[in-house]
Prior knowledge:
Elements (H helix, E strand, L loop, with lengths): L44 E5 L4 H10 L3 E6 L3 H10 L5 E2 L2 H8 L5 E4 L6 H10 L3 E4 L7 H14 L3 E3 L7 H11 L6 E7 L26 H5 L25 H10 L1 H6 L7 E8 L9 E8 L8 E6 L24 E6 L3 E5 L6 E3 L20 H9 L9 H11 L1 H5 L6 E4 L4 E2 L3 H4 L15
Parallel strand pairs: 1-2, 1-4, 2-3, 4-5, 5-6, 7-10
Antiparallel strand pairs: 7-11, 8-9, 8-14, 9-10, 11-12, 12-13, 14-15
Amino acid sequence: MSKHTLPRRHFFFGSLLAGAVPTAGFGSVASLRHLGFKSPNEKMNLAAIGAGGKGYTDINNIAATENVVAMADPDETRAARTFKLYPNVPKYKDFRQMLDKEGKNIDAVTVSTPDHMHATASIMAMQRGKHVYCQKPLTRTVWEAQEMLKAAQKYGVATQMGNQGYSNEGARQACEIVWSGELGNVTEVHAWTDRPGKYWPQAPGIPVKEEPVPSTLDWDVWLGVAAMRPYSPAYAPHHWRGFPDFGCGAIGDMACHILGTPNMALRLANPVSVECIKKEGMSPERFPHKTVIRFDFPQRGSLPPLKLFWYDSLKEPLKFEGVPADQLIGDKDNNGSLFLGDKGILTTGCYGERTRLLPDEKMKDYKMPPQLLTRSPGHYRDFIRACKGGDAACSNFGVAAPFVSWMLLGVIAMRFEGKLEWDAAKMRFTNNNEANQYLKPKFRKGWGFDA
């Protein structure tokens, strides 16, 4: 069945489903073929912007079937493991030089940098006609997410954000359960993560101690768009995520995964307000150590208004009436989401895995509803297929940019007390002009872009 055609059974799911599935399906922006897409049997040439950390995974997953032809990373030490695997591939510290010198031999790029460089690197690649796989959270600011979408549309390239859950079988099953009416009207979602926790420090009082720049690091290139400042190991290579100039805290790390299923199932877009209703461990340089953030969404077609709560640095399972706490968590990590409907309750794991009704007894004889969404061949295969002229990837920028745009409002809410009222049409907060300054980054000279 074509992803652009819904089966006849779609029309028997009642008013809950009405308007819930776009007529062309999720991620349905047609692949443009005028750029000279390769045959599915022909290998494409991949270049990497960011080879250390998550770059190692991104590169090797795509390299399983494609060619790696160039890499750029300002930190030789951080990228050493990946560089060693590809000894004959040209390597650069500045990705701009790589794109200029190797561009004719590049079909696609992975962008696996700290958050603050996602948009600049991706857009510079798209301007050269390169397909882009960009790590989550796609961008650090709302304005950049919109620019990423504009660039993808303008240059007609294949795209994918690195949130694997959108390609997960369980995430799509969750959509079909919600749309079947099994939960009734879903008016509340709770989503949580154990991060930052042990993964990076966000507690107050941790000093940012200046040190000499390591000889293996190009600090100017690592900073990129960010304002110049002395080097500190508190920033690079590992803990940048806790600093607002470089990362988005736990929201940037995990919300693109955990909120992906609610975003898709409940067609979330354009909240009317966002508020950080609880925060602990305030620091002038870092994000709070622990937060609870509330998003309020208006009615969306036949779907009722929704309250969505995000919890980070959560050590113990959340408690809900009628929900056994031990059934919310399916593995060693405390990451997941919970849908509360007036007829039923659904929970999923970090990537949409272990999707199930609660309590667990309800799943014993439960028969999954008819399949409405196409299934993914795998997260990275999604991207490769799109690059070669196939269906758009599950989390292409047409899907990812609107998702990230509302999610990143929570990052801004951490800075303020009280509710921030959001006007999506005007792309601004209506009751707090100070908050509007954080919608768009300030670019260091030489690092800006025009999509």
